[in-house]
Amino acid sequence: MKILEYTSTKLTIQQNAPARHWIIGMIFILVGLVAIAGPEQLTTFKCDRLNMNQGSCELVHSSLIASDVKTFSLESIQEAKIEINPNSQEQASRLILVIKTEQIPIISEYSSNIEYQTNAMQKINNFLRTSTQPSLEIVEDSRIFSYVFGSLFIIAGLVGSGLMTQQCTCNFDKTVGAVTLTKKGLLWKRSQKRTTSEIFGLHVETNKKQSDKKKYRLSLVLTSGQKLNLGQQYELSRSETQNLIDCITTFLNVGVTNMW
User: Fold this and answer.
1) What is the spatial distance between Cα 221 and Cα 235, in angstroms, rounded to a whole number?
2) Residue 143: helix, strand or coil by DSSP?
3) Coil, helix or strand for 162?
4) This model's pTM is above 0.70
5) What is the mean pLDDT of each run of 10 residues along the chain (260 residues)?
6) Greatest C-alpha distance within the chain
7) Alpha-carbon distance 13 to 172, whole Å?
8) Residue 107: alpha-carbon gap to chain centroid
9) Distance between CA atoms of 107 and 97, rounded to whole angstroms?
10) Quick one: which H or E segment has residue 20?
């Protein structure tokens, strides 16, 4: 909290939110973006048969930032089968395509969804055996969870940064006998006004019991008993608190209502 103006008729003090609040919001947003742009992919396997044993197939793995396309002839495909991950204790598996020269993973990542893989394997092998079937298409989208997870983190980061109080300004003006307290965030602004005659004194609050770690904040105490916080955060050192107390009490001719 700092003093922006101090004259015989005006006193303006302001507190800005610590940078860590922005950093936390940015971390949430970054985690969300990484999740959305992660390794999860949309997999599309498509085959078109021209005649009984001739045709072409295309395997596409696409993510938010990249796409990998493989094409090969239908007659080069021998079968589809399920490959078990030997390093997994949970029987993770993936669907692979056996062609003459190599084995190509249709679904890149190992997973425990054996039912889906078995169903896809049967569809491919049935297509290979059924010469009258003109086409085949299998689609597997593993991005949905990542998109939902990432979007939630991005929204949390944006909302947290937007709703959080970023700045608190208190303006004392003797010429009109008013005190204006303005709080604003990234997406909002709120002000309230009181007369200087309503101010009874200052109240000092702390968030720590250990004397070497104490941080303070100040509140205006009104004659009605209501308190108006001059800052949302406990961030003042003892010397900074004393300096503000001296300025405000001298300016308003009031005292401190509690021992601190």
Assistant:
1) 20
2) coil
3) helix
4) no
5) 92 82 81 78 90 88 83 92 83 89 85 88 94 92 81 83 77 95 84 94 84 84 92 83 93 90
6) 99
7) 9
8) 29
9) 10
10) helix 19-36
